[in-house]
């Protein structure tokens, strides 16, 4: 049996876009609107990427 991934290891396995958006939101505590402005994308796109990233990281961490 392998050891569970750390948060850093799980983040490293995410696609770049998901890793950046989740990091900005959860680690830098940026609002969705601010992330959208920073990246030059619609808020809906940020929300969609956040949802898929949260789902993927939850699975990687064995929490879902």
Automatic annotation (TrEMBL):
Q: Name one GO biological process term.
A: DNA-templated transcription initiation
Alphabetical UniProt keywords = Sigma factor, Transcription, Transcription regulation
Has UniProt tagged this entry with the keyword Transcription? yes
For this UniProt entry, the molecular function terms from Gene Ontology, in alphabetical order, are: DNA binding; sigma factor activity
- Is Transcription set as a keyword in this record? yes
The residues covered by the RNA polymerase sigma factor 70 region 4 type domain are 7-48
Q: Which domain of life is it from?
A: Bacteria
Q: Name one Pfam family in it.
A: Sigma70_r4_2
Against InterPro entries, the record matches this protein to: RNA_pol_sigma70_r4_t2, RNA_pol_sigma_r3/r4-like, WH-like_DNA-bd_sf
UniProt family annotation? Belongs to the sigma-70 factor family. ECF subfamily.
Q: What is this protein called?
A: RNA polymerase subunit sigma-24
